[in-house]
Amino acid sequence: MIKMFKHMNHYRNNKFKQVKHTLQRLQLNWSKTNSTAFCPNNYKSILIVMCDFGIGDVIIHSFLIHELRRHNYEVSVVIDEKNKFLFDYFIEIDHLFVFDKRNIKKFIKSDKKITIDLAIDLYEESQNSLRRVKLISSFNPLHTIGFNQKKFFQYDTSINYKEYDSHITKRCCITLNLLEIKFTNVNYYLNLKESDLQKAKLFINEICIEKNKFIIIFNPYGSVETKSFSQEQINIIINFLSQLKNCITIIVGEQKCISNIKELPNVFINRNPSFFVTCALVSLSDYVITVDTSIVHVASAYNIPMLAIYSNQYCSSFDLNKVWAPINSNFEQIFVSENGKKIKQATIAKLDVNQLLNKISSLPAS
User: Which pLDDT score is estimated for 17?
Assistant: First the structure.
């Protein structure tokens, strides 16, 4: 009986939330009196919406930010508290606006003291759309670009996007083409402090008794459990890596996750909690082994050869193996499979690690 009441209460709360969101959406739509025509020559101040982004999402957007600023646009970013540290120097922008997800109303009512000509939102409708639209509306931009946005009138230009197998940067390219901006290659643009590089070099020098060792970065944990190796898999992998006499392996990741991993000969844990020192280690490495997370995109930024492990997730028909793949010129992806076929919605914990060990054994320094 108690279980039934809990289920009914949960169902009622969800329905109430849906009705509430629908009313808020209608209210926002009614407040948008006129749609404006897209006029690229009229825009100089651009806002990029980074609501509910992970670190990897931000790194990917560094391509769009760089190209816009290179063409003399003033670029602002609106982002939540947890990722504001990425814009101190790591990614260069002109203005940063930080909101607290627990108090969106306060941010919406705040005086932005800036005029936004164009707002850009690269992501389609989702459970976070209402929050994104509220943020956009608070800036009152002249024009807003979105992708697959049919329900919200705030998007003056909604691009019908059905390229389910294309990399997420394709959306950046489409946006740049709309603005008549010419570019040659898709790259990520990151800045590391010399002090972070020196800390990374010092650590490498401490663990490399012999010079000219082949440096491998191993990142076993993703942002969620489905994108992470199991402890048993990690033990098998690092045991194998420890036997590569010409290699040194550095394990990176959140300290709370990697601190309990046992170090072995030739296998060391990076105990510096700084994300930027981790990035510096990646930039100095010869090879990266990582699950689908921000380290994929850091390694792509520095064009480090990489073995990336993905868990075959799909979202609204988009193949996330391809949407969030590495972009550098020298990488391989491994997908969780069974009898040679990819398993949809699989977890990395189901991966046969022999696939990975076979790839590692073919490295030049192994």
Answer: 55
Number of compact structural domains in the chain: 2
pLDDT, position 340: 56
85-104 per-position pLDDT tens digit:
999 999 999 999 999 988 88
Q: Could you read off the pLDDT of 10-63 as tens digits, one per residue? A: 555 555 455 555 555 555 555 666 778 999 999 999 999 998 899 999 999 999
* 314 bridge partner residues: 319
Asked, for residue 17, whether it belongs to a domain, the answer is no
- What are the residues facing 331 on neighbouring strands? 306
If asked whether residues 210 and 346 sit together in one domain, one would say yes
Q: Could you tell me the residue range of the domain that residue 210 belongs to?
A: 194-361
Q: How far apart are CA 26 and CA 42, in angstroms?
A: 29
21 assigned to some structural domain = no
Among 133, 153, 178, the domain-final residue is 178
Q: Are residues 83 and 130 in the same domain?
A: yes
The domain that holds 34 is classified in CATH as 3.40.50.2000
Answer yes or no: is 246 within a domain. yes
| Residues of the chain under the 70 pLDDT cut | 1-33, 338-345, 365-366
* Among the listed residues 154, 108, 119, 357, the one whose alpha carbon sits nearest the alpha carbon of residue 243: 357
Q: What is the mean pLDDT of the chain?
A: 88
**Is the pTM higher than 0.85?**
yes
Alpha-carbon 303 to chain mean position: 17
Amino acid, res. 233? Q
Closest CA to 48 of 38, 60, 36, 37: 60
